[in-house]
Design a protein that fits this description.
Structural class of chain A: mainly alpha
Strand content of chain B: under 5%
Number of helices of chain A: 19
Helix content of chain A: over 70%
Oligomer: heterodimer
Radius of gyration of chain A: 21 Å
Structural class of chain B: mainly alpha
Distance between the termini of chain A: 22 Å
Amino acid sequence: MIKSLLLLPLASGVMAFLMRGDAPRRQLLLWTARLHFLLTALVIYTRLASGEQAEVSAWFGYDSLGVFFLGITSLLFLGASHYAVAYLASEKRDPGEDFGDGSIFTNAPEAVFTGCLLLFLASMTAVTASRHMGLLWASVEATTLLSAPLIYFHRHRRSLEATWKYLLICSVGIALALMGNLFLGAAGLKTGAGLDVGGLLAKAALLDKPLLKAAFLFLFVGYGTKMGISPFHTWLPDAHSEAPAVVSALLSGALLNCAFLGILRANAVCARAGLADFTGGILVIFGLFSLVTAALFMLGQRDYKRMLAYSSIEHMGILALGAGLGGGALFASMLGALSHSLTKAGLFFTSGSVLASEKTKRISEVSGLWRRAPRTAALWLAGFFLITGMPPSGIFLSKFLILKEAIALKDYWLAGAYLFFLALLFAGMARVFIGMTFGERAAKPGEKPYAEPGGMLAPAAAFFICVILAGLFIPGWLNALMKAAALNAAGGI
Amino acid sequence: MHTFAELTIVFIVLLDLSLAVAGSLSYCIKLVALQGVVAGLLPLLAASGAPHARAVLFAAVIVGLKGAVFPWLLMRARDKSGARKDVEPLISYPASILLCLGAFVAASWLGSRLPLPETHVAWIVPASLATIFTGFLLITTRSKAISQVLGYLVIENGIYIFGLALFVEQPMMVELAILLDVFVAVFVMGIAIFHISREFDHIDTAELSELNDWRRGEYGK
């Protein structure tokens, strides 16, 4: 089953490059996403039902942690593919006028876009399935290379700048994770632990501690760059603001999680080797620092897609914080990863509709959205409440559980700082969302009525409903899966 | 026994220093290619006795990629972009070489402090760390996009040598996957350079500065 999961998007991606017609290619994208989701559901089901490791080889296999992140990726891609089909159809109708400076630009060929999208899914599937740290690294680097052309879909200067920064910063960052892998290998040299996750976990206690610490530091910086942990996040706002909404959604919702998975794998080995305090400390410090960075940049933000990008940095910080605190907070991190992915993807989808309606990404130029695009405005506002953690939502639950853990650990300073910056972030985002949604709207000259694209809004609405439901009631199987994933992330087998 | 390998290490460090002062882009491309080839051959030189067929094959792949394919791709990117021939460093060449030398001293100190397994080849750890630093130097202090790709490749060379020093044997499949990634990275960056040159009429990354948070939204106005 893992083989078909990996090969399906790979084969479809290659086919998409070769296909001529736009319509069949879009169908290919849709059906690949649906089939991938179905296979993922089967993998999750077998995982939960049998409890056995579904190993096909030493390279690929699924533990609960991998399965959980696979589930998020696949669900997100399902929504994104539906959005993409509606989006590509609308892009074909009116070719691009640069909202920034009014110049005309072309789009990348649709075959390249769809092909890269599918290959991107294949590489993310490989990340979640990797049982070998070296292969994990190669897969994460592959995600960078395959998603770079996606950011450069609209061929203009700013997207090119964003693509270049993304390519270079992430490639160099991930090169450091390769150093981490080498240290990890050296730490287990005498024990013959190798670099496969199973072997490392089995022999964790025998690993050389100083080298293991060095390995974690390098892996954290490397994958942290990709995950958007501050201060290594500098590529993230540019890439998210310049990429098409569907790509931003996938970057934020699926890709950042994949990098987080890399950190969690390293964390698991270290925790099992008795270094949980060391790794926890690093995760908490950088997690909190990401919150601070996000809060500061949120306050003066003028571009709403960049604002969403900083919100992603905030949530990655929270995930790291949760992972660092451990215990119940690790479970909260899992719930946070799921809820954030769905909410942020929904928000990016909605931002695509806002951009199509208002033709600007500047916050100050958008107001009274509800008068022109009521459904978009409703989703925009709903997304705001969900992402800032208003109950009932999965994000509220996860933020609350992390706070509870910090208090339970008697870390009052941390809890206080956490709350303070969350409040700051709420205030910063409230200003933007409320201002854009409500207020008077001055009609722009030559403006045509805006027909809200249902196909672009429906995935967002579906995701939001899922997040609200997760805040009200977590089904038993999901609860079990997240618990098992949290156990894996803390070094349990 | 390992005299050859040790001489090679010295050569690699000398290549780092030349990269710090090399002024012409094509010369830099050749230096990086040479360094890649030398690093690729290093495991064969350092091995005692006859090398495995696997090691020979792998070395051949590396030499082919780093010695022929990468320089060809980069030379093409340089020609197509119509870039001026020099690297235009942001700091002076003496400063570059001083930083490079300083890095080597620091790397020697760090190499002696790291709790690494004993290596057979002297100076291999400091040399690899110095090479990684040289790569970072190229990325941060050279404004041309091609120089930044070269910096990335130098970092990759350094990490490869570091891996040799640590005796971390990765399975063939992983090694090949990593090489494939590096190849695709250079390929994609080459395409990006081509687009940058077409869009901006040059490949000076200092001009790629429209996206930031504080002057946001002023473009085109």
